[in-house]
Queue: 3 jobs
Job 1
Amino acid sequence: MACFQGQHGTDAERRHKKLPLTALAQNMIEASTQLEDSLLGKMLETCGDAENQLALELSQHEVFIEKEIVDPLYGIAEVDIPNIQKQRKQLAKLVLDWDSVRARWNQAHKSSGTNFQGLPSKIDTLKEEMDEAGNKVEQCKDQLAADMYNFMAKEGEYGQFFVTVSTLP
């Protein structure tokens, strides 16, 4: 984005008007009208027209780059990858929760051998919690795997952005 001379998110015509090349072209053309029909005046007019054409080409090129390359890569960097990272953190949290419940269940199960009063209902409750936590972990794993496979399936599309950049004139 920092490489663009025009304003991000504007169409080619608006971007063209704000380019320094356009201002230079306008100044050259204005100066040529003051010099009227002299050789220098005609030269300034010709150079002003050329600068204006260069500014138009630059603005169209920047709009193309923005639409075809920068915006899709921005979507990858700011949406797809953060979503995968968020799901990985969620999975890590769910695994910790599952391990905690499993440790409590194991502890209750060991202590039930020595003290059998009232523990079967607690063991059953912990077993249900452990199963539920395990199901959440599996669901999160499946979703993360699906999103990562989907991301990797688009690898060719992502590579095409860089091929497009490298083949630009």
Job 2
Amino acid sequence: MPKPKNPVFRENIYTFPNFLTFSRLVSAPVIGYLVLKSNYILAAPVFIYACITDLLDGFIARKYGLQSIVGSVLDPMADKILMITLTGSLAWIGNLPVWIATIILGRDFLLGLSAIYYRYVSLPPPKTMKRYWDFSIPSAEVHPTTISKYNTALQMGLIGVSVLKPLVLQSLTVESQALALQAISGLEYTVAATTILSGLSYVFSKTAVKILSPEEIEERRLKQLTFTAKGKTEKTGIDNGDTKK
């Protein structure tokens, strides 16, 4: 008789942290559209929501044991798509210098190419397009470098300032406007420097991208099964208690 094939392990990707990350991903084109239409009053709260989800998704995943490979990939992807969309939109309307937009977009383009490469080389065979885009099949995980984390925070700060700048400047005096613009210029140079350094950190870091071994994938499968079984046991206990009542 033919030997049965080992089933492909698929992660549970339908978790609340992943939902928050996905909502941030969806919010990117919405904010970009509002910025292009100069509707900063609506763009600002949606951008703040995106920043809050960036803080909450990782915290909730770590606190409740909901980390996943797809989350480790989707989270930085959502950040990058948000950053790329707003950088392009703000540069288009003149709220962000083209030279810094070029640095940000150039680095993210190169990181995107490397992500495509690592996904392909780490994907267990058979390497098909369907399996390539099925992120419930874990193959590699991303660990942001320290400088990259600081850079993401600084970029978000610069984007937030650029979104709010038209609203804030009109309420300031001429002298205050000059000081504010100087401060923004300093932030732009800081973001440019950290963006270049963070890009180089991914090139020279040995731990930024980790290709999972079959043993590590099996370990994650068993961990997910244990977590699922524990949840079912707790639910059964609650149901039995309700029945006795």
Job 3
Amino acid sequence: MAAKPHPPLMKKHSQTDLVSRLKTRKILGVGGEDDDGEVHRSKISQMLGNEMKFAVREPVGLRIWILFSAVVFTAMALMALVFPNQLYEVVFEEEQTVTSISIRLYGGALLSLSLIMWNGLYTAEKVIIQWTLLSEACYFAIQFLVTSVTLVELGFVSNAAILLLLSRILFLVITLSYYYHLGRRPKKI
């Protein structure tokens, strides 16, 4: 009994068969718009989500501001840790009579904030950048209040202290504006 040869197999090229491709994509649930108006090219991208949706549109100069803040916070922290008496004399134009441990603790707190700034500089996550800016804004507001109360208690105002207060207000406004602009929702095109 001779085996009858089978005819050659005909493969269906589903890549070229548009109706077949459309049916397959419809069954998988890809190719159409989702609730957000996005069109997914594959089931994997639909399941994982579109990473462009999470990309942060940063305000102009945000990274430069965070770098500037990180450098200034680090420098002030090191000055407060190494030269606490001189830092006090520059701001209040009088010699410090109490121990310098409080200024060194201030330097340690500033160093901790500077580490947050350095971390905020290298991250791409919007929430971390927002918390970095918010912690910086809280610092500027608290320092403004504490310095103002101290100057009122001392009963005199030095030029360096006025410059410090004005710089804290300016830095607070800049930081809050970046925080506000980063928190706004981008316009859909």
